[in-house]
Amino acid sequence: MEEILKQDKSKSHKEFEKLLSKDLENRKFKEGEITTGTVEEIGKKFVFIDLGLKSSGAIPIEEFKLTKEMDKIEIGSKVDVLLEKIENRDGEIVVSREKAKRAKSWKKMEKAFENKEEVKGIIISKCKGGFVVNVDSCLCFLPGSQIDLRPLKNFDHLMKVPQTFECVKMDKKRGNIVLSRRAIMEKIRDKGRNELISKLKEGDVVQGIVKNLTDWGVFVNLNGLDALLHITDISWSRINKPSELLSIGQSIKVKITKIETEKKKISVSMKHLTEDPYSKIINKYEIGKKYPAIVTKVQDYGCFAKLEEGLEGLIHQSELSWTKINIHPGKILSTSQKIEVVLLEKDIEKRRLSLSYKDTTVNPWKKFTQDHKVGDKFEGTVKNITDYGIFVTIRNSELNGMIHYKDLSWSEKDSELEKYKKNQIVKFKILEINQENEKIRLGVKQLTEDPFDFFINKKLGDIVTSIVDSSSKNGIYVQVGNKNLPIFIKQNNLAKEIKNARPSRFTRGDKIDAMIIELNKSRKIATLSIKALEEKQTEEAVKKYGSKDSGGVLGEILGPLIKKKSKK
Asked: What gap in Å lies between CA 481 and CA 477, rounded to an integer?
């Protein structure tokens, strides 16, 4: 019996589930979906909606006020609502007008996102990183970078004003929607660009306004369309910066050289409005000939000069002057100065011209070589004094020659430099002319005879008479011959005996005899020795008078021969 009752109970339960499932399938109303109802009553706090169910749904009147629909609804009006619950704990229907609008807006935004359609909305407030936009009661995020084509400092004119946006991102799980106003503006801009570009073709000559200047080019406004004028397309001549020739707001004519439709880029040129001077005009200029020119730029390494528009060449620093070598080009030429130049070289492939300014004048080195020879005597003015010599500007010439300190005096002492001052007039003889290296060597001492000629006919062992000039702790200075050749006798050559080898025992004006113990005529070296003479004379006296010096006889004989005092 119990088993029979269990089977009947199980069978009845299954039949109930089937009936319930069939009933739910036939129902038109499902929780979480939007359905349409009729306004049957408008109260002070609620608006009652008839959905055709056992009871009416009550919606707080604030929801209609929030969506600004109070003036539009009346009894009998059809209203879309979201059915949240068919029956709550109290057996009432739970519906929402606000959530219905949000759900409807979300579906609309999903469709707009999928089809990339534009949506209308209002920017209602600022937030971190951007703005909040209301699109049919659906709150969306507008990043700050997507509000305009360029960064804006002031956004007040866009707040609470209907705007058009594009939905660029949606996250259904988080309920996030990202909009872009910039995308709409880019479409408008691109559409305008496409229309303008379609009216242009390569080779057209158009008028434009200089919009912006950079170091590498210029942006030109062609009736609302930006075009690039590269620095190399401004002029056939070389320029350092576009600002040298153009300024913002200037109206210019340009030729369209390239149109990139896909990238919406246009390249223009100013120089292509005229013929390339390196194609035909360059042929009328011949190498080695003289032409008028205008200095356009002055640099540290030289000057640029223009033969005519588009033909500009470099006058290197070495081609500016025959004599002024280590000088800034700006001290020779100045910008806008009219000059004459000689064309040295033209490289059409590299579009380069080499010019010379100095070749327009006579080469002073060549002229000096033709008019003068080694051995000529001249005068000049001291221009500069250095540690190793003096530089002299040769009279009636712009050339400079150098007198080494060893060529100032036969003594060849660097102290001779102290005798000379700037702008002093000096006489000299030309010792060497080197046109290739552009050098002239001069000498002052060569104007007089070489005092060392005194030793031309002398040999080792000869005895010479000299006059004491001065003394030091290491020896004495003596003057030899008529030209007063200075020679230094070291202390160890002053006397045979150490006690007599004191330099202080010799006074200025003393006449002394000494023997030549070293002589190099090619190097002009002569060494004298009193000691060697004493030893020779002692040896000769011993041979003549014997080895003993009784009573100082030998001393009396040799004394007068070695040292003779006399005043000058």
From this structure: 14
Maximum mean pLDDT: which of 1-5, 257-261, 401-405: 401-405
User: Class assignment of domain 200-273?
Assistant: mainly beta
Nearest 5 degrees, angle CA 251-CA 252-CA 258?
Answer: 130
Phi first, then psi: give them for residue 262, nearest 5 degrees: -65, -45
Give the integer Cα–Cα distance in Å for 368 and 145: 76
Of 43, 67, 71, 73, nearest to 56 by C-alpha is: 43
Predicted pLDDT of residue 566:
39
Copy the structure tokens of residue 35. 């359905």
List Cα–Cα distances, 519 to 204, 378, 487, 527, 528, in angstroms: 93, 34, 12, 7, 9
Task: Check if 200-273 and 364-447 are the same fold.
Answer: yes
Structural domain 455-564, CATH architecture: Beta Barrel (2.40)
Rounded to the nearest integer, the mean pLDDT of the chain is 81
In this prediction, residue 290 has a pLDDT band, given cuts at 50, 70 and 90, of very high
Question: Under CATH, which architecture does the 364-447 domain have?
Answer: Beta Barrel (2.40)
Length of the chain: 568
* Cα–Cα dist 184/416, whole Å: 89
297, amino acid identity: K
Q: Select the CATH number that applies to the domain covering 281-358 from these four: 2.60.120.1440, 3.70.10.10, 2.40.50.140, 3.40.50.1370.
A: 2.40.50.140
> Residue 371: what pLDDT?
84
Q: Which helix (H) or strand (E) holds 350?
A: none
Give the pairing of strands 311-316 and 352-356.
parallel
Domain boundaries of the chain, sorted by first residue: 116-186, 200-273, 281-358, 364-447, 455-564
Residue 42 structure tokens: 């408008």
- pLDDT bin (cut points 50, 70, 90) of residue 564 is very low
User: CB-based contacts of 255: which residues, under 8 Å, 6+ apart?
Assistant: 203, 204, 205, 268, 269, 270, 272, 273
Integer Cα distance of 375 and 249 in angstroms? 70
Q: Are strands 463-472 and 475-480 parallel, antiparallel or unpaired?
A: antiparallel
Q: What is the pLDDT of residues 74-124, one digit of tens each?
A: 787 777 776 766 666 666 677 766 677 777 777 778 787 887 788 888 898
Maximum Cα–Cα distance for the chain, whole Å? 185
CATH 2.40.50.140 fits 116-186, yes or no: yes
Model pTM score: 0.49
Angle between helix 530-545 and 553-562 (nearest 10): 140
Q: Label residues 70-81 b or e (16+ Cβ within 10 Å = b).
A: eeebeeeeebeb
> pLDDT of 489-499, one tens digit each?
998 888 888 77
Cβ within 8 Å of residue 301, ≥6 positions away: 316, 317, 329
